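Q: Structure tokens for this one, please.
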Amino acid sequence: MSGVAEAHRALAGVTVLDLATYLAAPLCATLLGEFGANVIKVEQPRAGDDLRRLGRPVASSGGGSYWWFVEARNKKSITCNLRDPEGQALIRRLVGTTHVVTENFRPGTLERWNLGWSELSDVRRSLVMVRISAYGQTGPNRERPGFGRIAAAVGGLAYVSGYPDRAPVSPGTPTVPDYLAGVFGAVGALVALRHAERTGEGQVVDLALYEPVLRVFDDAIAVYGGTGHVRERIGSGTESAVPHNHYQSRDQRWIAIACTNDRMFARLLQAMGRPDLMGDPRMATTPARLAHRALVDEVVAAWVGERDAAKALGALEAAEVPASLVASVRDLFEDSHVRARQNIVSVALPLLGQLAMPGVVPRLTLTPGRIETAGPSSPGEHNEEIYGGKLGLSRDELGRLAERGVI
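A: Here is the predicted structure, written as tokens:
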């Protein structure tokens, strides 16, 4: 938690209305909220957001999973039935004082609910609308459903993940594409906000869930376009450099080593006590090492395998070879550098104690982000504050809307 004054928060004064569910578009809103935006999370009446029920539940919380409390942080929760005309009217009224709307429904859904771009931009001309869907707002597949696993498959990343003699695997976790899309969506929102500040003109940020995956696909697309070469699975190594892999130590830990040029490889050979191998024509250059990948990996694996992880890492660090323990989540909690950088923080969860979660990224020196609260404990926790304070609805009106299932 930081004591940064509100005036020093980069996005102070920006209001975000988060209509989305699950992960990608909600994460976009979360990132904006960490740097000062006021984020209003719209949940389903009574049931709440689906993310509350995804993953491991927090014992005795009665209102959410660990995932929910992390990714809904800094948000205020209201409930609204977007299918109901009265609910739609409430959203349009809120848009009047909103700068960014985030949503991730299938294209055409909000239009059917009278909450599409045309309707909302009529309410506020400078509105920015971040729309993240499986395949984007255009194209022949625009109405197809999809989640992160599908995005990794569509974007080409799943195909190259894993070993050649086994099925493709999800790169990291199936939600990596969701997190990537959330980050790209936040970039789009900030660019569009800057344009709106200068011109008063809002716009749509249209992002398909698979597109950030395709965008971070190294040089695979350019290489195929230029040569016809299709990148295939090669396990934990990489196509462009070797040794660039994971190697198991004597005490059964895994170490990542990344040598991307001849200088780094020479330093590795020094650490291994094998400078003589630089004279081996099979290892003297990057092209030669790539042509003899199995041999190079075998030499490095043998050296690592003869040592405990701490000893191997000490020698690699002394030689300035890029290397690290392949960290489990337990290792992250024990890592002194992770602690020093406050990459894992503790946030109060009302009535339940403290909750560990990832810290704010990136770090800004003048306007740092901060985590003020974990995700709201119950759906509609801020109905009275938002609907009453912003729209002037009385408690009687709120009661009537709640009885009808509108909020």
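A few notes: DSSP finds 17 helices and eleven strands in the chain. The longest strand covers residues 38-43.
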